[in-house]
Amino acid sequence: MSQMKSNIALGVAAVALALTVYNQVITPSTPSHDSLKAEHVTELREELHTNNAPSSRNSESQSALDALDRSALVERIAYLEERVLEIENRAFSNSPSTESMEETILAVLEEKERKDKAQNREDNPVYGFYEDLPKDYDLKLKTDPEFAMKVSQDLKTKVLDESLSPTERLSAMGQLQMNMYILNRTQGEMFDYETVDAVLDISRNSQDEKLKVQALEVVAHSPIVDSRIAKSLQDIIEKEPNKYMKTMAAEGLIGQYYQSGETSPELKQQLASDILDLYNNSSSSEAQLVMQRLIRDDELLEQIRRDAGQ
């Protein structure tokens, strides 16, 4: 609409200008008429200026708004910078001291160590005692006979105590067996058939498959040589459905055979004969396969045959 008004005003101004020129050329002797025409042109020019004024005012208004926006943005940035500086200063003034940070770090490390120990006990409860042993435990066992005797006696008591949980009894047996290795003893008054048989009983009767396996592992690696232990291992080889336990018992039986040569030649002959029976004529094909897998060496097989008197 404003553009149309501007166009009309320009057209009227052009017509008025043309009339003025015409009058000046054709009738120069009428000054009063010239004055009227000049006033009319002036009015038209003022009207034209008036019609064009909104566009100019709009431009001026936009420039003013832009200037206000920039000013507000600068003020906002300055405010945010002040806030950031204030927060940084507050954080710096509230930062913990070196001693406080050290205490916090130590607390975190202690908590992590506690959780690691708990996780190790859960994953392998039989050998969880490792986590609680003092650093000088080995040396004290070797240099203090009274300490070694008391610890071993307490551990044997725990192994035989059926009121304790199977996990506690197995853990005590594992520590007792470790003590014997540290002291370079294969057996002793605190580490004998009675303790091994108690662990075998856990393996036979426990409803926890994990504990059954761990108990048998303790027995299979036991340095105690006894015909009753060998017989129990042979029964496991023939009757246990768990293939891993069959293999573990077979390893324990062969271990009994090896160790018996140092203490009892008669027992060694009997064990060699039992091993050959399992190897050749077992009523369980799986048990026979386990023994054949373990005795792959022809030289070892010939040695067992000689010891069995065959």
From TrEMBL:
Residues 34-49 have a biased composition (Basic and acidic residues). The keyword Coiled coil applies. Residues 50-64 have a biased composition (Polar residues). The keyword Coiled coil applies. Residues 28-64 are annotated as: Disordered. Residues 70-121 form a coiled coil. Keywords: Coiled coil. This is Uncharacterized protein. It comes from Pseudoalteromonas luteoviolacea DSM 6061. The lineage of its organism: Bacteria, Pseudomonadati, Pseudomonadota, Gammaproteobacteria, Alteromonadales.
